[in-house]
Amino acid sequence: MSRIKSISETAAAQGRKLLIPYLVAGDPDLGHSLGLMHELVRQGADIIELGIPFSDPASDGPVIQRGVERALAGGTSLADTLKLVSQFREQDSQTGIVLMGYLNPIEIMGYGRFVAAASEVGIDGLLVVDMPPAESSELHQRLHEANLDSIYLVAPTTSAIRAKAITEVCSGYLYYVSLKGVTGAALMDHESVASSINELRELTDLPLAIGFGIKDADSAAAMGRLSDGIIIGSALVERIADMSPGAVNESDLVRSCEVIGAARAALDGLQEDKAAS
Question: How many beta carbons lie within 10 A of that of residue 38, not counting itself?
Fold first, then answer.
């Protein structure tokens, strides 16, 4: 059983929603990234999505693009990202870690070398935003053999046929993009999201995590009611932008991650409301 599956099953048994923050490795520097990862866990994260810096993050909005630019300006590479996870694992063997990014750096490293390195440092899953299932068979097979999850996105514009194909190869959890557009856009049509989630539940037993547009406790609770978990990226990266590279300040770490603590409280409030009803 993968670590993500174990985390998800434990959360489901407890009636607890998954909380999955996203940050860019090396933003604003690698020392801060390590501190942020540990602080995110303290604030209630179950799984962390760690972005691999890439020079053309076309699917990301301006907030995350600027985070990627800060990481690249500091020289952060895929190798650095892997080393960061290894350092995190020296103190934390429980939290799920998913690498999220674009195919180019992985292809340059080579699938076999990448999967071996990812497995060695303690990564649990991979989400490649520009690699559709039809083109991912080799990488997917290597990940499967290493017991690493292949995580995919489903968007409001995804056809039923394509959604079915995605659920057949996806593992760990399914990432539902709550709106049309890039990361950081505003969340809008709750009814449409609810309808899409219900349709996806007919196709898969995987946990369904909603991302894009979740920025505070209210939006976390709204999407938590509809799903098995939520993903918060831009709202966190926007706060990280206020940090300066250099010595890690613990109060800065806490302040940047408070949005995740607020989301955790909101999600746990749903559990308490259900228990009281």
Answer: 17
Q: At 79, give phi and psi (nearest 5°).
A: -60, -40
Q: Is 116 helix (H, G, I), strand (E, B) or coil?
A: helix
Predicted structure pTM score: 0.95
Q: Catalytic residue among 39, 60, 228, 238, which?
A: 60
| 49 in catalytic set | yes
Check: CB of residue 262 under 8 Å from CB of residue 239: no
Consecutive sets of 10 residues in the chain, 277 residues long: mean pLDDT of each?
96 97 97 97 98 92 95 97 98 98 96 98 97 90 97 93 94 90 54 92 97 94 97 97 88 96 97 69
Q: Residue 100 corresponds to which tokens in the numbers above?
A: 């999220």
Reply yes or no on whether 202 is catalytic: no
Cα 43 from Cα 258, distance rounded (Å): 7
